[in-house]
Amino acid sequence: MQELDTHTFRLAVAQFDQAAEFMKLDPNLRERLKLPQRSMMVSLPVLMDNGRVEVFTGYRVQHDSARGPCKGGIRYHHDVSLGEVAALAMWMTWKCALAGLPYGGAKGGIQVAPKKLSHAELQRLTRRYAAEIYPLIGPDKDVPAPDVGTDAQVMSWIMDTYSQQVGYAVPGVVTGKPLSLGGSLGREEATGRGVVYVTLEALRHLHLSIAQATVAIQGFGNVGSHTALLMQQQGARVIAVSDVSGGIYNVNGLDVPELIRRYRNKGQALRDTKLGDAITNDELLQLECTVLVPAALSEQITEKNAARLRCRILTEGANGPTTLDADRILEEKGVFIIPDILANSGGVIVSYFEWVQDLQRFFWSATDIQRRLQDIITSAFQRTLHVSTERRTSMRMAALMNGIDQVAQAHRQRGLYP
Ligand code: GLU
Fold this sequence. Notes:
Layout: H1 7-22, H2 27-33, E1 38-47, E2 53-64, E3 70-77, H3 82-99, E4 104-111, H4 119-132, E5 142-146, H5 152-166, H6 190-205, E6 214-218, H7 222-233, E7 237-243, E8 246-249, H8 256-265, E9 277-279, H9 281-285, E10 288-294, E11 310-315, H10 324-333, E12 336-338, H11 340-343, H12 346-360, H13 366-390, H14 395-414
Parallel strand pairs: 3-4, 3-5, 6-7, 6-10, 10-11, 11-12
Antiparallel strand pairs: 1-2, 2-4, 7-8, 8-9
Glutamic acid (GLU) is lined by residues 71-73, 145, 147, 175, 319, 344, 347-348, 351.
């Protein structure tokens, strides 16, 4: 489909093709699963603070709903395109299936640089977007959540806009909400916590100790900052972090709580905190470390830099950070990869808990949430490791095959309509 043809979509399809080939997936299913079930493109006129009306472009793509309502975040980023959103939606399908959540995959996005908008403009844009995608979303249909560039405030506006349409409060229409609106304890740090749980499993598998582990993290948003904090709490040494503007490095370990305080509360750039030496994003990826966590955007590790990586474990906090060419190089180097659809699934797992709590109007404790998250993500890791060893394939192919197989079974059992 020409409209979807971007490099991120090509990456998602190439991964799928490789897994489908390996598992000898029924060709009749293959063609359908390469394409999204439904895609919506909307134009969003927004009254700017200066009195002018600016028109933004938004998307919501549902990749597959055979196993349940669609689920996936909404991304606000200036590079968002239909193809990128479709790729991310496809990855959500495999991610939910691999974790055993009763969802299909979806993703949404608006082509906008959210930091350039005022709070009021962001609210008007979000509400107009929610109103336009209203026919697609709902607790039984499609449940959005935060992603790059969106947060609990954006989710609150979507929840309110949807609730205004139906006439009563519907907390289950989105996840990642604040606690006051039916959010869940532990959702905010969930992706980072999941990244830590699977990394601990990998360290154990490789007989490495967490106390001796060094960690470098690309990206210091929700996923990167919580990963840094929780890794340090587990006893690892976080030696470098970065954001779009660059990063900092301290071989003795960064003071993560202080870094977060200055970065978030004081708005200081990472390098201006003086808590380490300034480095570039490229330098960060090439640092010698036990664990490298790309937690920013897709296609950061490519055939151009893969050979220079010096990590033992690559835990993919971001979606699609590694290209297939890079995979091959890393495999030859013996890097243990925890693929995105497994490594970053903590977010959607706790989103699932939030949705269940909203539907039941019965809320769980933080310990319940942590324990259940650890159970689900650890067993997904072990299942993936098992398939990877049994079938002599990479962790990525094992995770994809596992997810795709769940979806294929659902399609076979439901049959082809009409
Ligand atoms: N945006 C997150 C992801 O890519 C979370 C999705 C969700 O919670 O639905 O997995």
